[in-house]
């Protein structure tokens, strides 16, 4: 399994940790063989040039996402896409939109090799979706968004482009992420979060907190542990069993058409108002300020 680590900054993409090796040479070597490519995009709080917050060290190392996605078991090229995601949320959001062009440029450089798939967590979802308008029909196969921090308007516009219409999008989400969805909508107000449902025929909203959904996934051979916490921004890749599912979706071993048949009928868009146990209104219309304990941090 080739694994390439790159960083995007400004208008450039460079290999991570190498001052001499050219990215173009590495890509050319990778494209000498045929096979799928999976590009992994991190979210908020990571910074590739800061050792304490480097995604390549904490998330994209060989035993991290690449191992969890089973890349070693397939003829897959893995690319870890690093970008500057530390700072004020609004600033990082703008950076995600800007770096979408670099992601699109990287995808285009991989055309001779074969299908390209994307997986992005948190604001990485914004970056993945924002890249679609810069691409052509068929450039992207599948996109798996994990607890995505992205606006509905952006998602629907992206999926109405030629590259978007020819791709399949799965948003893995949960009520565990509700606080983060609310915070995203409040701090960067626009057209609402994709947690409300993208509502496009090529998009699937996968609620891994739904008991019927978990039963359906188990019947397909992808058992996922039940939620253990009220609040967790990382359960879409740390919950036991979920990365095996994400891998199957990325590689196509689990076709989206089969997934849809196993899921319960789509419900009305989810209400992501502040829940009562976090200070929202209870049925008696009173406020409560319960201490819910520390927020769970990712395993790596």
TrEMBL record:
Every AB hydrolase-1 domain range: 80-201
Recorded coiled-coil stretches: none
Signal peptide: none
UniProt-listed Pfam families: Abhydrolase_6
InterPro entries documented for this protein: AB_hydrolase_1, AB_hydrolase_fold
Entry-linked Gene3D superfamilies: alpha/beta hydrolase
Protein's recorded name: Pimeloyl-ACP methyl ester carboxylesterase
């Amino acid at each position: 399994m080739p694994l390439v680590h790159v960083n995007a900054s400004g208008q450039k993409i460079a290999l991570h940790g190498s001052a001499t090796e050219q990215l173009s040479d590495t890509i050319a070597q990778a494209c000498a063989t045929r096979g799928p490519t999976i590009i992994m995009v991190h979210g908020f709080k990571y910074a590739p040039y800061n050792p304490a917050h480097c995604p390549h060290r904490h998330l994209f190392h060989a035993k991290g996402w690449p191992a969890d996605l089973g890349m070693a078991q397939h003829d897959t090229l893995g690319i870890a896409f690093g970008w500057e995601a530390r700072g004020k949320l609004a600033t990082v959001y703008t950076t995600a939109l800007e770096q979408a062009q670099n992601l699109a440029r990287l995808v285009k450089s991989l055309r001779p090799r074969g299908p390209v798939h994307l997986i992005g967590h948190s604001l990485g979802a914004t970056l993945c979706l924002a890249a679609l308008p810069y691409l052509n029909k068929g450039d992207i196969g599948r996109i798996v968004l994990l607890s995505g921090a992205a606006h509905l308007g952006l998602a629907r516009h992206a999926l109405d482009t030629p590259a978007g219409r020819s791709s399949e999008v799965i948003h893995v989400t949960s009520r565990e992420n509700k606080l983060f969805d609310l915070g995203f909508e409040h701090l960067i107000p626009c057209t609402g979060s994709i947690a409300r449902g993208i509502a496009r025929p090529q998009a699937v909203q996968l609620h891994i907190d739904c008991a019927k959904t978990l039963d359906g996934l188990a019947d397909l051979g992808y058992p996922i542990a039940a939620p253990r916490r009220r609040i967790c921004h990382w359960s879409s890749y740390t919950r036991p069993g979920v990365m095996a599912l994400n891998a199957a979706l990325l590689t196509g071993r689990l076709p989206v058409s089969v997934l849809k048949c196993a899921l319960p009928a789509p419900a009305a868009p989810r209400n992501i108002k502040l829940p009562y146990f976090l200070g929202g209104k209870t049925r008696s219309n009173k406020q409560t300020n319960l201490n819910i304990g520390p927020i769970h941090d990712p395993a790596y």
